[in-house]
Design a protein that fits this description.
Elements lengths: L5 H12 L5 H8 L3 H13 L19 E9 L4 H13 L3 E6 L6 E7 L2 H12 L5 E9 L18
Antiparallel strand pairs: 1-3, 1-4, 2-3
Amino acid sequence: MKRLDRIDYKMVRLLRNNARLSNKELAQAVGLAPSTCLVRTRMLQQSGVLTGFKAEVNPAALGVGLQAMISVRLKRHYKPDVEAFRQHALELPEVVRLYHVAGPIDFLAHVWTRDSEHLRDLAMTAFTSREEVSHIETELIFEHVSCQELPAFLDQQTD
């Protein structure tokens, strides 16, 4: 992977905060010619540093009344069971993020549901009914905020 310099980090920070920046605006902000900036942006994409651009949505505007994290513990750490559950969870339309984690649980599933009844039905039919699942716990999410800034320690890695 390409070693990033301070301009690369600045470009990544700016695009993380606003992926809709035009190339011209980005070039001006980092002090590059637009053609050079475009080449660097493409290199960041090709090297896998920038993996995509997305739109943030308001869940409530889509009819989501409740968000939750469902912690899932599998019966055993057997690769086919892990893969089977992972695939199943990723196919559920309510799962917006899935984390495979270490510790007393195996997966965290961030889910969007219409209401508490929908959440209960999801937990009972899509999670506890699975052969590989031994235990689940559900925590309601009152607020979900994404930090747009990159961690400050990354500044120490630049030239």
